[in-house]
Write a structure and sequence with these properties.
105 residues; mainly alpha; elongated; 6 helices
């Protein structure tokens, strides 16, 4: 009889566990973290419609590229990463050109 509550508890916890994040999901999360400051700056500049922030955007772009390069993503991992970015970082994924520029080696 004592075994029944223990089994029920184990069953409850095993059903509630979340699946492990894939490597592509982890990489997409990291890329998104790297790109967030650039995306925020781009959004601010687009709202203000002033081109005088080009230098700031260029500096932030280079910082973002360095951050992503430090993740050491292998070329063969890129297709899965791009798919994962769609779910993890839709703002970045929506700009295919920006994504390609940031991810190229």
């Amino acid at each position: 009889m004592r075994l029944l509550p223990i089994l029920a508890t184990l069953l409850l916890f095993s059903c509630n566990s979340t699946p492990d994040e894939s490597k592509a999901d982890k990489q997409a999360k990291a890329v998104c973290n790297c790109a967030t400051p650039l995306l925020v700056l781009n959004s601010e500049v687009a709202k203000s419609q002033q081109n005088e922030d080009f230098d700031r955007i260029q500096v932030q772009f280079e910082q973002t590229r360095r951050c992503i390069q430090e993740l050491r993503i292998k070329p063969e991992e890129m297709p899965e990463l791009v798919k994962a970015l769609t779910a993890r970082c839709p703002d970045l994924a929506s700009s295919q050109t920006l994504t390609e520029e940031l991810l190229k080696n």
